[in-house]
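pipeline: protein-struct stage 2 | run 1193 | Band 7 domain-containing protein
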Amino acid sequence: MITIESYKLDKSDQHICALQTRGNLNSQLLNELDHATDQWGVKVTRVEVRDILPASSISGALEKQMTAERFKRATILESEGHLEATINAAEASSRSAIIQAEADSKAIVFTAEAEKKRRQLEAQG
């Protein structure tokens, strides 16, 4: 006898879990049916489970779990977005300060060179 309750339905990757579970269930059904029909001379070569409909309580629990997982992923993505935005703003501020400092430094050099040239011209008369 095959019991579906023995299959774990709440793995994190439900698509892979469903395919693996369906494959295992197909294999077990094939063995059971082939064994049961062997006495009649019938050989079962293929069995395929097309759809598994869980009880409404299980469906509700799985739906809540999927909703919680989606909310968790959305919260994490939103948090990562805020973190990235904060980092980008800090980098922009830092680059801006560096550019401003370089501009101030160049202005001081130009002013000093202009003053030096003015003094040379005054000395020449």
